[in-house]
Amino acid sequence: MSDGGDDVVDLIGDDYVRTILAETRDGPKSVEALSDACGADPSTIYRRVERLQDAGLLTHEQRLDPGGHHYKEYDTALEAVHVHVRAEGYEIDIDFTEGEEPADRFTRLYEGFK
User: Fold this and answer.
1) In which domain of life is the source organism classified (predicted)?
2) Distance (Å, rounded) from C-alpha 96 to C-alpha 75?
3) pLDDT at site 107
4) Which residue from 2, 7, 8 is spatially nearest to 21, judged by alpha carbons?
5) 61 near 27, Cβ under 8 Å?
6) ∠ at Cα 31 (106, 17), nearest 5°?
7) pTM confidence score
8) What's the total number of domains in the chain?
9) How far, rounded to the nearest angstrom, does the alpha carbon of residue 3 sit from its chain's CA centroid?
10) 3-class DSSP state for residue 92?
């Protein structure tokens, strides 16, 4: 996976992205919780979350709070990223968490990188 893999490598080079992925490994988190964990403004976290979702590395679910308002909680779809360095260049393999069928994931990622 070289086309989308390059984007993933660029993404995980970001400190906020790495924190978001680490925090959501323990379970779904709201932007507010991720903002606190990152020590960043929610608008910064929303931008990172959007990029992670576009790359297929983060999923979300709509929640309803006790006051009747809707909000999203985000969960990682990423298990691991492997970078293989070879004489002719490098190759990137991405392992996703279980849940989505591989063919569906591939189609979604391919369409996201067009």
Assistant:
1) Archaea
2) 12
3) 60
4) 8
5) no
6) 55
7) 0.74
8) 1
9) 17
10) strand
DSSP category for residue 113? T
Which ranges in the chain belong to alpha helices (H)? Answer: 3-12, 15-25, 31-38, 42-54, 102-112
* pLDDT tens-digit series, residues 62-94: 888 788 888 899 999 988 888 889 998 888 888
The alpha carbon of residue 41 and the mean position of all alpha carbons in its chain are separated, in whole angstroms, by 18
Domain coverage including residue 61: 3-112
CA nearest 30: which of 72, 62, 77? 72
Cβ atoms of residues 2 and 109 within 8 Å: no
> What is the CATH number for 105?
1.10.10.10
DSSP helix/strand/coil, 18: helix
C-beta separation of 50 from 57 below 8 A: no
Strand partners, 71: 63
Q: How many helices (H) and strands (E) does the chain have?
A: 5, 5
